[in-house]
Amino acid sequence: MNIVGLPAFVGTYDNYIWVIHNHVNAWVVDPGESQQVLDYLEQHQLKLQAILITHQHFDHVDGIDALLATFPNATVYGPAKSSLASIQIKCQEGDVIQLAEDLQFSVMETPGHTKDHIVFYNNQLLFCGDTLFTAGCGRILGGTVQQFSQSILKLRELPDELQFFSAHEYTLSNLGFAELAEPENKLLAKRITQTTINYPSIHQGAQSTLGEEKDTNPFLRFDTPKLKARLLERGAQDSKESLFSELRAWKDEYDHNH
Asked: What pTM was computed for the model?
């Protein structure tokens, strides 16, 4: 399987629409726009089989109708807890969806960014929408702090080798905050020196691995000793929920000032 990230909402939300394909058939994740997807499918003579939706924010779903107009037989998979009318197969925790003989995904519910958020994963790939980003995580826009911290801890249990795909390109800003949060993290320092971002070029392959995120993404590390001590100093209580909440508030403050 080949995977490319097509840029969308460039300069505002800096999304990626992920296209999975085998040179014949294609599956698209979170199409907030449609034209660049249609162009890519036509250019590579691909037939769209399915659309996977992680949550119902407009920048993840507004391209669905135009894609279905061209590929009316494509199936739309999305969260059972979403009210989006275009979702044909409603997915919930533990579901397994078979997209091709050699392509299937398990579904995990990861509320926090929104109430309806899900991720798609298998033993090689993780499409996590806006729950986690490269070196960061989504904002709380409908879910609760408790839900979000639990969702991130669930994702942290998945294998390190999973290829990591999120729905936005925020790496450089997120690394700036990560360095502030964990200045002593040597793996993070190494990642910063090795990271170059060519957005809005088409992205080939994964953004990172889940293992790299566990090593360098503060939102997967909020209970590690040094970062935890910093968060307690900032006023967090000694609970996973409170530590995550304080880290998210710190990141919001950072974003506001940058």
From this structure: 0.98
